[in-house]
Design a protein that fits this description.
Number of strands: 10
Distance between the termini: 36 Å
Catalytic activity: orotidine 5'-phosphate + diphosphate = orotate + 5-phospho-alpha-D-ribose 1-diphosphate
Domain Phosphoribosyltransferase: 49-172
Strand content: 15-25%
Helix content: 25-40%
Strand order of the largest sheet: 7-6-5-8-9-10
Radius of gyration: 17 Å
Binding site for 5-phospho-alpha-D-ribose 1-diphosphate: 100, 104, 106, 126-134
GO molecular function, one term: orotate phosphoribosyltransferase activity
Binding site for orotate: 130
Structural class: alpha/beta
């Protein structure tokens, strides 16, 4: 989209406003991975705010149409990518599937839920990109099912170098509506953080696995 910077700013403002993204440079969160983080992102909060939910749906749909052309199926990454993917699939009038982190251990033992047709051009929808590993597991599951995964879209990306490498290695293009640099600029502009917090937040992004606010 030609106005991607405008979209990124609007998404950042919206997610900060509804506290879907929280920034606490001096009182970091602990992720499931054990990483200490000055930021926590839960885009599922946007689902409870219809105007923001609608804007995200529209912009994801536009991004897919403009960047990937003719698409035959939308697939969401379980779990947070499922509702966003359903909204986009409905908007575009396309079939929808979703991909579990692993196959079920009962019933048909599916990892992909929904009908898959060999050779379908698929775009994967995710809510958030950190390292990209879980997203790429979904991409690989679809490829193993003989789908033509043309790319992945998300609401937000941290822009980690590890994610860039992982997607490049997997030969999977990915695009996000909003990114970490835009978020920091918008957060500073609207006083969600102090200007002198930005350096600390940038250092975290450069080395998140080993970051600590005690030795910033």
């Amino acid at each position: 989209m030609n106005n991607m910077n405008e979209v990124a700013q609007k998404v950042a403002e919206s997610l900060l406003q509804i506290k879907a993204i929280k920034l606490q440079p001096k009182k970091p969160f602990t992720w499931a991975s054990g990483w200490k983080s000055p930021i926590y992102c839960d885009n599922r909060v946007a689902l409870s705010h219809p105007p923001i939910r609608t804007y995200i749906r529209q912009k994801l749909s536009e991004l897919i149409q403009e960047e990937f052309g003719s698409v035959q199926m939308i697939s969401g990454v379980a779990t947070a990518g499922i509702p966003q993917g359903v909204l986009v699939a409905q908007d575009l009038g396309l079939p929808f599937t979703y991909v579990r982190s692993s196959s079920k251990d009962h019933g048909r033992q599916n990892q992909i839920e929904g009908e898959v047709v060999s050779g379908q051009r698929v775009v994967v929808v995710e809510d958030l990109i950190s390292t990209g590993k879980s997203s790429l597991q979904a991409v690989q599951a679809l490829r193993d099912a003989d789908c033509n995964v043309v790319g992945l879209v998300s609401i937000f990306t941290y822009g980690f170098s590890e994610a860039e490498k992982n997607f490049a290695d997997a030969k999977c293009r990915y695009l996000s509506l909003c990114d970490y640099d835009t978020l920091l600029a918008v957060a500073a502009k609207h006083n969600y953080i102090l200007n002198n917090d930005i350096e600390l937040l940038e250092k975290w992004r450069a080395n998140p696995a080993n970051w600590s606010p005690d030795h910033e």
